[in-house]
Structures are given as structure tokens and as C-alpha cells.
Specification:
312 residues, alpha/beta, six-stranded parallel β-sheet, 11 helices, 42% helix, 18% strand
Length: 312
């Protein structure tokens, strides 16, 4: 079945969202082919599905006219409601976090899907697991999606500047040059989700801050998405300091790998302590990933399993 829709008097940039993110949500939720030419939308697919997609676009337009804006969350809700009303349930939307420069960012394993659900239900989430399980990448995707949807005003990404056998004082360069190598994974994740032309101004005006954990002291962050990466290397006091920065309408994700603690032997990992200390608090969630959730090279999973077996 084929159907053509003409979106008259509609700002298609706002309807389809930044980088056509709203349009991509619709495309990924259904099997039908959707082609856009100017203000004409052509839908080609199953005779039961095409009318549902037509209704989704109609509801998107109505919502945009009523609110003056249309977020990805709005589109997801409209797709879900319209699909259910028409007996055509789509499950794929539940795992899509954000649309980056390289396409949809979504859960690829059962553990990652559980992680996504936990983040959506809680304001603070602790995600613990080995390297390559997508802890940091998905956290950054959530933050960027929240910024794009205007749910928050800024993103704060931080890491403890602690590595085995190294000391900042002995590294060459000024302070920024000393700490930037520790923060490279966060820059890499952002680079996958945003073009350089968009990312640079956001970094320059501190809409997105990538900073060492020590720089969080004394701040209260409202309307922000905070991420603490490599949290196993945060001390007890640093972890408490980070968690108490959370202001009004702010959210936080804390990620770490408890098998790779680089703190001095006399220092206790704040992540290990907080896992036991904060259990059972409403609005705070925990997610544990394991070797089965590794999404890097297939050998990484085998390497992690080998080390786990040696330690046990």
C-alpha cells in the first residue's frame, strides 16, 4: 500500500527534529518505507501499517502546533499510543536512547536494555561492569538526548584524574594539558553523537563541560545531566561530593568497573561503598553489566572471562 501526505504550513525542521531525529524514530518503529520530498511524505508498506504511520505524522503535526515544539519523547509517546490504538505495537522504540551522527544508539544486549530502562525510571543511576559494555557511551547518549530535548540546560562529564603509576604533577604541560588525556573517552563519545561544528561552541560556552572530578567541589548544578565516569577511582569523600552536587531538575549517571581500581591501597573506592550504602532509596537505581554485554571486539569478552576465571 502507498500513501502520500502533504504537510502544509508546517515547519518541517521542527517536525522532524535536529538531524531528522524525530523522523528517524518513526522510520525505525515501522517496517514501511518513508520518503520525504519537500513537504511531501510518501509512505510505502503493509496496508495495516501505512494508516498507522499516517496517523502518527498527523499527531506529530497537531502536537507541534499546540506546543510550539516537538521532542523525541513526544514522538515516542505518539508512536506508542497510536500503534496500540491501531493494534500495531512496536517494541524497538523502547531501546533507542538517541540518534547520533552514525545512526540510532540503542541497547544491543539484555544487560544494556536493562540499563536503559533503569535510567528512564531513576534520577540517579549507578552502572557497574567491565570494559566495553557501553556504560559510558550510553550515559553520554542519554545526556545528549536530554540536551537536544531541552530537558536540561547543560551536561557535566567528569572523571577522577587517577591512573596506575602516574601522577599529574609529573606530567608535562599546563593543567588542561595534564588532565585532557584522562578525559579523552568522553570527548570520543561526544564526537560520535555530534558534529564538530556543533560540539565546539557547546564546549566553548560550557553548555557541555568535561572536567576532572575535583572541579565539581563547591558547585550546585540545576537543570543539568551529570556523569561520573571511572567512578571506581573516586574516594568516599569524592563520591559524596559528586552526589551532593545534584540540583533541581538534574540527573546523574555514575559508571565504573570495580575490577580496575587504581586508588592507593589505603584509599577505599567510593563506588564500592556506595553500592551497599544507598540500596533501597527511591529514585536511585543500580545496574550490573557483565562480559555478556561487551560490544567491542569479540576477543574482549573472552579476555574478560579469562581474567575473571583467574581471579576466582
Amino acid at each position: 500500500m502507498e500513501k502520500t501526505i502533504e504537510m502544509k504550513g508546517m515547519d518541517l525542521g521542527m517536525l522532524f527534529g535536529p538531524a531528522d531525529a524525530n523522523l528517524k524514530l518513526v522510520e525505525d518503529a515501522f517496517a514501511s518505507k518513508i520518503i520525504v520530498r519537500g513537504n511531501i511524505i510518501k509512505i510505502d508498506g503493509d496496508k495495516k501499517e501505512v494508516p498507522v504511520i499516517h496517523e502518527v505524522f498527523h499527531e506529530m503535526g497537531s502536537t507541534l502546533n499546540r506546543k510550539g515544539s516537538l521532542t523525541q519523547d513526544d514522538v515516542k509517546t505518539l508512536i506508542r499510543i497510536t500503534a496500540v490504538q491501531n493494534g500495531h505495537e512496536s517494541q524497538q522504540l523502547d531501546t533507542v536512547v538517541h540518534y547520533g551522527r552514525k545512526g540510532a544508539i540503542s541497547g544491543r544486549t539484555d544487560g544494556q536494555n536493562a540499563y536503559i530502562k533503569t535510567v528512564r525510571k531513576n534520577d540517579i543511576v549507578f552502572s557497574v561492569g567491565p570494559a566495553g559494555t557501553g556504560k559510558t557511551y550510553l550515559a553520554v547518549a542519554f545526556a545528549v538526548a536530554a540536551l537536544d530535548n531541552r530537558e536540561i540546560d547543560r551536561i557535566i562529564l567528569c572523571r577522577p584524574a587517577v591512573e596506575a603509576g602516574e601522577n599529574l604533577g609529573f606530567l608535562p604541560g599546563d593543567l588542561k594539558e595534564k588532565v585532557d588525556p584522562y578525559l579523552t573517552p568522553l570527548y570520543d563519545a561526544l564526537g560520535d553523537m555530534m558534529s564538530t561544528t556543533r560540539l565546539k561552541p557547546l564546549l566553548a560556552n560550557n553548555t557541555i563541560e568535561i572536567i576532572p572530578l575535583a572541579y565539581m567541589r563547591g558547585r550546585t548544578l540545576n537543570n543539568a545531566f551529570m556523569i561520573l565516569d571511572e567512578a571506581q577511582n573516586a574516594t568516599t569523600m569524592q563520591m559524596k561530593m559528586f552526589l551532593t552536587r545534584l540540583g533541581v531538575n538534574s540527573r546523574a549517571i555514575i559508571t565504573g568497573d570495580i575490577t580496575q581500581i587504581d586508588l592507593p591501597s589505603k584509599s577505599k573506592s567510593g563506588l564500592l561503598e556506595v553500592i551497599d550504602l544507598l540500596q533501597g532509596i527511591d529514585g536511585l537505581g543500580f545496574c550490573k553489566l557483565d562480559a555478556s554485554d561487551v560490544v567491542r571486539h569479540k576477543l574482549v569478552r573472552d579476555i574478560i572471562k579469562a581474567y575473571d576465571h583467574k581471579e576466582n
